[in-house]
Structures are given as C-alpha cells and as structure tokens.
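Re: the multi-chain job from yesterday

Posting the exact lines I submitted so nobody has to dig through the queue logs.
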Amino acid sequence: QQPVQSPQAVILREGEDAVINCSSSKALYSVHWYRQKHGEAPVFLMILLKGGEQKGHDKISASFNEKKQQSSLYLTASQLSYSGTYFCGTEEPGAQKLVFGQGTRLTINP
Amino acid sequence: GAGVSQSPSNKVTEKGKDVELRCDPISGHTALYWYRQSLGQGLEFLIYFQGNSAPDKSGLPSDRFSAERTGGSVSTLTIQRTQQEDSAVYLCASSLGGGLSNQPQHFGDGTRLSIL
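And the result, structure tokens for all chains:
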C-alpha cells in the first residue's frame, strides 16, 4: 500500500526550513528518501532503518518512528538547489522492494 | 564510473505496436528494478530482479507487460499491443543487492514512451 506524503507541495524562500512527512498503514522495515528534479532521474538522499534512528546529510536530516510507521525529512536553511520533488519509499519486512509515495514538490524562491 | 543506462531515451509509437525498453545496470549490481512514472505522479513499482530471476512481478499492470534479465546484467521490458494509457516514463534502477535496508537504488534517466 502506497505511503502518504504531506504536504503535496510547499513554496519557501531561500533560508527557510521545511518538513516533509511520510506515513504508512503498514509495518515498515526501512524508509528511503529520494529527490527528483524536473526531467531528471531520482537521486538517493538517505535510508533509515527501524530502530527510530535519525540521519543527517549537510542541512538535510530525517527521522523514522517505526511504531508510528512515519518518517519525516527536515530541510534547514533551504538553498535554491533543494528545489525538486521529494519521494519517500517504504520497505515492508521481507518485501525486497520499495513502495513510493506520490511525492512532495518543493519550490525554493530567492 | 558509468551509471544506469536506459535506451531509447524517447520512444513514440502507434497504438497496438510492441515496444522493447532496455536497461543496463551498474556493473556488479545484482538487483534491478523497473518503475513507471506517469506525468506528475509518483514511482509505480513494476518488477524486481535478483540476478536473472524475478521474485516479485506483482506490479506488472497486465499480461501485455513482461520483462527479462540475462547474464545478471541487461534487462528488457516489453510491452505488447501498446495502449495510450501505457504512455509514461519508464525508469530502471539497480542496487548492489543483498537486501534493501542499506542499499540505495541508482536510477537511470528513463525512457519516455508516448503512444499515439
């Protein structure tokens, strides 16, 4: 079953923060985050495993709450280069595949 | 090094024709995935290969869709008797395999398929 992402779209000014949420009705083993710019291939950001871990990469970080079956992606002090559509992909135990959400379109304006 | 390569990058064909899409994964990647992305939509899982076998074909929309992988490398996705609703970007991704938990997927640029 497809995870639900929220919000569907967000517009920010450069330097502002954003949070993108990913919620599943299924028990999850891992959550993956990707960013896709218009007309390009999705690019890997990070993987979070069950255990409630958090990860960070530069000013982009994420958390995974396996009990709530939710993950959140945090973008701080956003840069113009952060613009794009963000997808979460969820892995159920034993599934060996990702089910992607519908995406969150992030627009960063100067 | 070389990334995931897909060909053709664009394909326009008439309704009812068969099409074949090709994916060359990153060398050494044993896992290969096919996705479909309709305009402005998310990534729809089609099929997953581990080596040459396909443990999960659950995402193939109909029996007009089939895929194979040979030599643990190149994969082809074939769509027979194409319909207009098949129009989409078809993305291929590969990963090292051995489980998704710590293996990112590397995507190709996709094949944009248009059915007239």
